[in-house]
Amino acid sequence: MPPLFVTKFVTTDDELVQIAALSDANLVSNVSDDTKGKEGFVTWAYTPEILRSLHAVTPSVIVKHNNQVAGYALVLPQEAAQLYPPLAGVLQYFKEHVTYQGKPVSDYRFYVMGQVCVHPQFRGQGVFDKLYQFHREQLAGQYDFILTEISTRNLRSQRAHERVGFTTIHTYHDNMDEWNVVLWNFM
């Protein structure tokens, strides 16, 4: 009997299409205020075409249940900034304004968590933790840490990230929202 969940890198176009659909379904502009408060939301939009180009740089991590993507966690290395403008802006901000252990984050080897999302059908079943554990197991040798930002309105995401080991190292406002910059140290 196959395991209930399989954690792996993305390998098929169908998986990228499922990621794009799950991302779109949970996009901040596509969910109700009630859902935002209870279930969280994602803020960056990803089309299958964008995901294909990002995947060519570094594949992302998914958890699958049978043939369904139960959750995903997008790996955005700094080299992907030329392919995805929102990443370029965030990286510039991080490099100019965010420090860790007294040094600019640009002094470290890091990648950005481009987005993490679990399908509503699979929430509360450990999928989020499986995604991040796989990241640590597979990528810790290449990177010092993961950085990402979480809307301060997205309390569910903030709590979930803290549970797996992320810490808030910086908070800032932009024209869209207030953000916590969170880091998971692999060192």
Automatic annotation (TrEMBL):
Signal peptide interval: none
Keywords: Transferase
Domain N-acetyltransferase: 15-187
Keyword Transferase set for record: yes
Gene Ontology MF term list: acyltransferase activity, transferring groups other than amino-acyl groups
Entry annotated with the keyword Transcription: no
Domain of life: Bacteria
Name used for this protein in its record: GNAT family N-acetyltransferase
Organism expressing this protein natively: Deminuibacter soli
